[in-house]
Amino acid sequence: MTDPSLIPPEPPGQEPSLTPPEPPGQVLAFDDVLLEFSGVTALNGVSFTVDAGELFAIIGPNGAGKTSVFNVLSGVYRPQRGSVRFGDQNLLGLRPHAIARLGIARTFQNIELFSNLTVLDNLMLGRHHHHPYGVLAAFGWLGKARRNELANRRAVEEIVDFLELAQWRRMPVGLLPYGVQKRVELGRALASEPKLLLLDEPVAGMNLEETEDMARFILDIRDELGLPMVMVEHDMGLVMDLADRIMVVDFGRPIRTGKPQEVATDPDVVRAYLGEEHRIVERA
């Protein structure tokens, strides 16, 4: 791997960017989706939209269909009814790699990294859509291949700084604390320069300090990069603190969509989660 000290600086006025600016308006429309498996209904009439720069959260009890929404969005499942549009593009029928090329990136509840590779190598894997040259050019590392490789490494170094990964940048991922590994996975998704980011339980298994760090980075992604996100998460305090809007699903059906406080006090949401005697409260 090329030493970062050998990477030439950007020309004046051409600072690298983690993600292209998102135009205003609606980014995603998920409309009346029905998904069934051998008579078992995973999603039934699920509809929602995501606007530019919005952090939209999906919550619900275990088995409610939250991950099924992500699998439809990323092309793993194809629903029997409904439509899914990303900007002007219909996503239904597209393979996962084609959807990724359109600008949708995803993290996973269970860490999906190459544990024997370094942080930098794992982040570089997120740049695979940004290598417009063949194998021979890569071996020669000349001309277009060299310029493109250096540009990709600059983009990765920017992510290292953004997510405060510098002290681990050359360490194998498998040796890092769990919370840092989750941060690396987030960085790999950002490395693809997505237009929409799907976060599947980004703080699952984390302690309080790791959760607070991840929450800070998620807010930075929304506020500094303007990147729209869809987040599935069980940590109710985190969701109430971070989300602009929330959709609650139960047994594959949406039961409420609205702002955090509206959702938290909805009787149907309280009943689905905790029963009649409890209320979902925001973190102090």
UniProtKB/TrEMBL annotation:
Q: List, for all copies, the residue spans of the domain called ABC transporter.
A: 28-276
Which GO MF terms are attached to this record? ATP binding
What Pfam families is this protein classified in? ABC_tran, BCA_ABC_TP_C
- Region Disordered, annotated ranges: 1-22
Q: Does the keyword Nucleotide-binding apply?
A: yes
Q: Mind telling me what this protein is named?
A: ABC transporter ATP-binding protein
Keywords, in A-Z order: ATP-binding, Nucleotide-binding, Transport
InterPro entries assigned: AAA+_ATPase (IPR003593), ABC_AA/LPS_Transport (IPR051120), ABC_transporter-like_ATP-bd (IPR003439), BCA_ABC_TP_C (IPR032823), P-loop_NTPase (IPR027417)
